[in-house]
C-alpha cells in the first residue's frame, strides 16, 4: 500500500488551493502548505479506526483543541485511517512476534514482591511525534538540569556549600536514605557522577511539558526505545521514511564512548563490563542487550574478583583487569564489605577499588540523593544556585510532608493528591487520591505520620493523552490513553548528549494515570523530527 505523503489534497477544493501555489520552488511550496495546514484540514477528519475518538477535555498529542489533526501527525493519521482493524491487527501481531522472537520481555512483581510474571513488553504502533522546535527546548532543559544535578552531587559529597549557604535544609540531604556517607570525599573521574540519566516528562492540560522525576541511579528502558524503533521501521517503512525522523541508533556507541573516557588515567584501551544482578532481575533483557550492542562483557558478581585494590574478570585465559563497570545493581547491594554484608549480588572490596581510583563506576555510588523525590522539589533552586539560571523545564508543584504546613495540607487533601514514597520507583506505594478508597487513604495517612520525610504529594495532573489501539468485538479502534516521556541523557566527558526521542509510556488501562510497565503500561516509538511543520 502506498503511504500517503505528510501533506496532500483531501478533496477537490484542497487540490485547487494546492495548485494555486504554482510558480514557487519546491521548498517554498512545502513551506506554504505547512503554513496553510490549519486551513486545509479544518474540516472534521475522524474516521476509520479514529471514528468516535474523544479528547474528553485532555490535551491530546495528535488532535488539537478543535479536534483537528495536528500538522506533524497528518501522514501517520492518513496511513492509519486507510487501514481496516484486520490490517492493523495483522501488523500488531507481526510486531508482537518480533518482540517474542527476540526475547524482549520485562518482569512484573506484585505489591508484596513475592509473585513475578515475565511478559512481552506491550507495544502500541501509533508513534508519538515531536517537532524539532519543541525538542530543542526539551534538549536544552535536560542538559541544564543534568549539569546542575551533577554539580550538586559533587558538592554534597565534598564541600557541601549548598548546605552551608542555607539554600537547602541540612536534613533534606543528610537525612536522605540514599545519601551515602561511606563515599564522602571520594573523587570520581572527570567529576562525572551521573553518566546515564532517564528523566520523566509529562504534559499537562495546557500542553506545558513538566519534569516529573529524575532517574539517576540505574535508569532502565532504553533498550525498548532502540527495539521499538526497529519494529516501527519494519512495520510502517514508507510512513517512517517520509517523516525525516532523527536516528537513535548511535546510543550504544555514545554510551560506550562516555564510559571509555572515565577509565583510570593512563589506560588507552579500557576493559568495560556491565554488572548485572542476574537473570531474575526485571531488566535483565536490557542488561544483556546493551552489553551485546556495546561489545562488552555481561558479568555477575562471581565473574569479578578484587586483588590488590584492583578489579579482575575471570576468563578462560585467566584474570583480566577491569577498568570501567557499568553497574545495574543498587548501591546497598554493590559491595558486602561496605554496604549490606549479606549481599550475594555485589563484589567484595569493589568500593575500596573505586575509592583508590583503580576502577570507574557508572553511575557513581550515592547518586540516589539527587533523584530523591523530596530533593526533586528543590531542583529549581539547585539549578539557580549552581548555574545562575532559571530552570528551562518547570517541575510539578510538590508538597513535602517533612514540612509541617505541607504535611497538614496533604493530610487534609489526600482525596485530591497523588502521594509518593520519596525513595520508591516503578509506581509502587503510590496513592492516587481521586481513585482511592477511604481505607487506602487512612493507610497512607498512618505512613506519613510515622515517616514524614518519606513522602511527597503532588496535584493530580490531567496528563496528556495519545491515541492507542484498543481491541473490541469489531476488531479494534483508537482511544486516548495517558502518556509520559522518558528521554535518556549521556554525560560524556566532552559534552552532554540527549537521545532524540526516548521511551513514551502509555497507561493501557482506561483512565489510569500510572504508565509504568510494572503497573500494566505499554510503550510507543517516539519520533523527533529533523524539521518543523
Number of strands: 22
Count, helices: 16
Mean pLDDT reading: 88
What is the terminal separation in angstroms? 25 Å
The CATH architecture of the domain at 399-459 would be 2-Layer Sandwich
Feature tags:
533 residues, Dna Ligase, domain 1, five-stranded mixed β-sheet, four-stranded antiparallel β-sheet, 16 helices, 22 strands, disordered N terminus
Q: What does it look like?
A:
31% of the residues lie in helices and 21% in strands. Among the domains are: 1-43, no CATH class; 399-459, Dna Ligase, domain 1 (2-Layer Sandwich). The strands form six sheets. It has a five-stranded mixed β-sheet with strand order 3-22-21-18-17. It has a four-stranded antiparallel β-sheet with strand order 5-4-19-20. It is an alpha+beta fold and 533 residues long.
Outline of the structure:
With 533 residues, the chain is α+β, with helices and mostly antiparallel strands. The protein has helices at residues 12-19, 26-40, 74-81, 85-101, 132-156, 161-164, 170-174, 222-235, 237-243, 251-260, 284-294, 350-355, 373-376, 379-387, 404-412, 438-450, and strands at 105-109, 116-120, 123-130, 196-203, 209-215, 272-275, 297-299, 304-307, 310-315, 318-322, 324-327, 360-362, 399-400, 417-421, 431-432, 455-459, 465-470, 477-486, 488-491, 496-498, 503-507, 521-528.
Amino acid at each position: 500500500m502506498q503511504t500517503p505523503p505528510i501533506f496532500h489534497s483531501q478533496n477537490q477544493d484542497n487540490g485547487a488551493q494546492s495548485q494555486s501555489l504554482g510558480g514557487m520552488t519546491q521548498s517554498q511550496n512545502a513551506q506554504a502548505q505547512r503554513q496553510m495546514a490549519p486551513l486545509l484540514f479544518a474540516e472534521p477528519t475522524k474516521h476509520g479506526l479514529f471514528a468516535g475518538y474523544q479528547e474528553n477535555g485532555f490535551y491530546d498529542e495528535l488532535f488539537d483543541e478543535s479536534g483537528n489533526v495536528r500538522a506533524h501527525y497528518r501522514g501517520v493519521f492518513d496511513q492509519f485511517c486507510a487501514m481496516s482493524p484486520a490490517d492493523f491487527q495483522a501488523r500488531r501481531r507481526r510486531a508482537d512476534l518480533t518482540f517474542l522472537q527476540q526475547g524482549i520481555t520485562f518482569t512484573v512483581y506484585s505489591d508484596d514482591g513475592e509473585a513475578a510474571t515475565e511478559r512481552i513488553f506491550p507495544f502500541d504502533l501509533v508513534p508519538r511525534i515531536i517537532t524539532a522546535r519543541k525538542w530543542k527546548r526539551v534538549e536544552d532543559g535536560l542538559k541544564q538540569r543534568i549539569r546542575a544535578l551533577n554539580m550538586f552531587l559533587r558538592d554534597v559529597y565534598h564541600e557541601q556549600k549548598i548546605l552551608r549557604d542555607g539554600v537547602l535544609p541540612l536534613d533534606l540531604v543528610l537525612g536522605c536514605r540514599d545519601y551515602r556517607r561511606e563515599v564522602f570525599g571520594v573523587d570520581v573521574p572527570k567529576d562525572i557522577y551521573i553518566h546515564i540519566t532517564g528523566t520523566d516528562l509529562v504534559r499537562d492540560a495546557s500542553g506545558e511539558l513538566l519534569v516529573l522525576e529524575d532517574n539517576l541511579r540505574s535508569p532502565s528502558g532504553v533498550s525498548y526505545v532502540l527495539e521499538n524503533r526497529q519494529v516501527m521501521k519494519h512495520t510502517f517503512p514508507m510512513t517512517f521514511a517520509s517523516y525525516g525522523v532523527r536516528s537513535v541508533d548511535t546510543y550504544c556507541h555514545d554510551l560506550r564512548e562516555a564510559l571509555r573516557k572515565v577509565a583510570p588515567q593512563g589506560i588507552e584501551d579500557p576493559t568495560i563490563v556491565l554488572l548485572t544482578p542476574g537473570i531474575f532481575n526485571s531488566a535483565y533483557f536490557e542488561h544483556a542487550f546493551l552489553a551485546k550492542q556495546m561489545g562488552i562483557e555481561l558479568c555477575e558478581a562471581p565473574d569479578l574478583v578484587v586483588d590488590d585494590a584492583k578489579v579482575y574478570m575471570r576468563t578462560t585465559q585467566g584474570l583480566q583487569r577491569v577498568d570501567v563497570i557499568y553497574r545495574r545493581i543498587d548501591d546497598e547491594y554493590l559491595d558486602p564489605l561496605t554496604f549490606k554484608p549479606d549481599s550475594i549480588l555485589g563484589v567484595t572490596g569493589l568500593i575500596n577499588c573505586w575509592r583508590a581510583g583503580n576502577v570507574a563506576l557508572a553511575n557513581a555510588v550515592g547518586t540516589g540523593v539527587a533523584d530523591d523525590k523530596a530533593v526533586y522539589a528543590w531542583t529549581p533552586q539547585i539549578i539557580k544556585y549552581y548555574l545562575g539560571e532559571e530552570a528551562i523545564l518547570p517541575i510539578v508543584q510538590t508538597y513535602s510532608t517533612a514540612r509541617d504546613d505541607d504535611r497538614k495540607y496533604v493530610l487534609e487533601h489526600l482525596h485530591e493528591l497523588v502521594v509518593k514514597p520519596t525513595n520508591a520507583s516503578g509506581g509502587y506505594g503510590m496513592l492516587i487520591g481521586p481513585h482511592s478508597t477511604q481505607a487506602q487513604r487512612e493507610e497512607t495517612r498512618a505512613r506519613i505520620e510515622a515517616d514524614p520525610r518519606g513522602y511527597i504529594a503532588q496535584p493530580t495532573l490531567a496528563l496528556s493523552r495519545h491515541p492507542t489501539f484498543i481491541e473490541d468485538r469489531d476488531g479494534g479502534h483508537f482511544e486516548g490513553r495517558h502518556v509520559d516521556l522518558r528521554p535518556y541523557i549521556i554525560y560524556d566527558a566532552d559534552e552532554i548528549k540527549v537521545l532524540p526521542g526516548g521511551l513514551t509510556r502509555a497507561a493501557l488501562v482506561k483512565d489510569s494515570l500510572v504508565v509504568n510497565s510494572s503497573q500494566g503500561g505499554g510503550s510507543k516509538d517516539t519520533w523527533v523530527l529533523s524539521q518543523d511543520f
